[in-house]
Amino acid sequence: MQSPLGQYDAPSCDVVAQSGRLKWYCNEILRRIEGSGPISVIEFNKEGTHLAYGNADGIVSVIEIGQADLSETTHHCHSCSKPYQVFLSHEPEFDCLKSQAIEEKINLIRWLPKSGLSHFLLSSNERTIKLWQLTELPTQSFTNLNFPVESGCRRKVVIRSLSDIKVPVCLKNYGNTNIRVQNKKVFARAHGFSIVGLSPSADRETFFSADPLRINMWNLEVTNEVFSVIDHMLDRLDDRSHLITGISCSNSSPSLFAYGTNRGSIFLCDTRSSSLCDHASLVFHSLAADESDVLTILTNSVSDLKFGQCSEYIMFSRDYLSVKTWDSRMPTQPVEFYPVQRHLKKHLTVLYESELLFDDFKLTISSNDRCIMTGSYNNTVKVFDRQNPIEGSYKLIMQDEDMNAFHDAFRTTDDNTSVFVSPISSSTSSPDGTELTWPRRIHDDLIDITENFTRSSFSDNNINDNTTDSHN
């Protein structure tokens, strides 16, 4: 099967610390081949050696990340990638009870810890979760055979005695491996609505899946049984004020998990206190309980939620306009606030009428909890450096048509954000023919909503990231 990504120019972005600021370089551009579906999700594994991404055709592709030669521009060893494996994860289904078609589009991918020579990952569409095993097997060749192996040879082998019988010898070439893909488990028929969250537990035995009304806990070895830790289906229909929008498990404590809701609240639950987590151990509220303004509720809806990599007390959430950092030791308000799309606040009515207010932006955290990365409109990715809150805001504008790989094309704007652009003269005409600086910055009267990054992922072994365009 051919990879949905075709030729690539040089993966990801490298970061170099310089004078307290982080310096970003475009390291590689991965382009889809013509005819393949849009990329819907990307995810690095824990070691940062492999990157998995899924598309709308139900195909999961994995690439291996290595090290290239020293760059003459950045004077650092950049990453380079090569295809690892491509497989069909999901196919179209049909729900006969609801007369509803289920797309094969891959919505979620989560890596599990590596075991021996095998990599494990979970992939999910709207209703079904599958566990996949990718094993590296050395190629085998046999010598000293009892029959000729030459192509087209018809010579017969005559065995007259025991001395004429040869013992075949198996030779394994560990330098050349084949990747075997196996579907180990299928977790299905446990969600009546689209799956919005998937998070492996720290115990390496269980994982959680969530839809708007239910959170299930699965054992990786059991597919015919599932335990519902939260079930809002049992509540009254007129009392469902909070719909689940995402879930995240603690990286250190198997009993802790948190989920976000459409009213901007985050519920922290502990399975040690109760097996049924109907009442959260701690609640973080972004809105007042009696808030009734529709636009305010929609802009504060939690679209993504992540636990900190280094501390179980820190959580990060993304809503439509901002990124917030929460500390369980001070749950009354966010401890950090990073505006992402503040310039869109005056256009909320127009965005609501065009349904753009329901766009689902995700966030990702670096392995040391220093950098927060999330997508935005205008082909822009926002990165926030928590150690440098004054000048640690970065705006990366991806212009792959004009980009020269490894070119140090940076400039500092008035709002202390680094803009990654192609090295074009300021007098160059824009693609639409107007005499404006290109690429243009996002202004209040210039909002390109046709190109937006909704998915991103950090590599844990170094500060590499990867982003995908939801409309590319």
UniProtKB/TrEMBL annotation:
Keywords (A to Z) from UniProt: Repeat, WD repeat
InterPro entries: PP2A_PR55, WD40/YVTN_repeat-like_dom_sf, WD40_repeat_dom_sf, WD40_rpt
A GO term from the CC aspect: protein phosphatase type 2A complex
Pfam family, one: WD40
Keyword Acyltransferase found: no
SMART domains tied to this protein: WD40
An MF annotation (GO) of this entry: protein phosphatase regulator activity
UniProt superkingdom: Eukaryota
SUPFAM superfamilies for the chain: WD40 repeat-like
Family, as annotated: Belongs to the phosphatase 2A regulatory subunit B family.
Protein name, UniProt field: Serine/threonine-protein phosphatase 2A 55 kDa regulatory subunit B
Organism: Schistosoma margrebowiei
